[in-house]
Amino acid sequence: MADREEELGALMRAAVAGDASAYDVLLRALTQSLRPVVRSACARVGTPMADVEDIVQDVLLAVHLKRHTWDPAQRLGPWLRAIVHHKVIDGLRRRGRRDEIPIDDVIEVLPAEREEPPPSRAALDRYTDALGGRQRDVVRAIGMDGASIAQTATKLGMSEGAVRVALHRGLSSLARLYRSSES
Known about the structure:
mainly alpha, Rna Polymerase Sigma Factor, Chain: A, elongated
């Protein structure tokens, strides 16, 4: 293990000095060495194994960005372990505190979706009658009769943009009316 660390340290020294091929060999070697280390760290702290490869990539990126901070007179291992430690913690923070439970384990206790009948045409007419002239006409044409924006614009002598604005405002007004009637 000490030989491997010394070999990686020599590659890192060469890479910091500008040897691109040594840097390529270093990154490939680090990738192979880091996977089991990160996998073990993730298992220890409860990070899902699905996150291992992301954390390995984060470590490699940190090595790339911070390689100038490594002191070539020091061993490479402690510097790398510190990066791995911080990246595993970053992975935990990114995930937040979430417990994953397979849906199959709880499907029997989940409530069934309630089927609410759609409002009757009379109820829809009552709500749309409360809208102003153009909004009412646009909402009825598009929302109830199934006409397109273009068809509605032609039928009502409006621009398509004006139809979209009237539709948006009409639907917003309908939502307010519906909420106030429910409470």
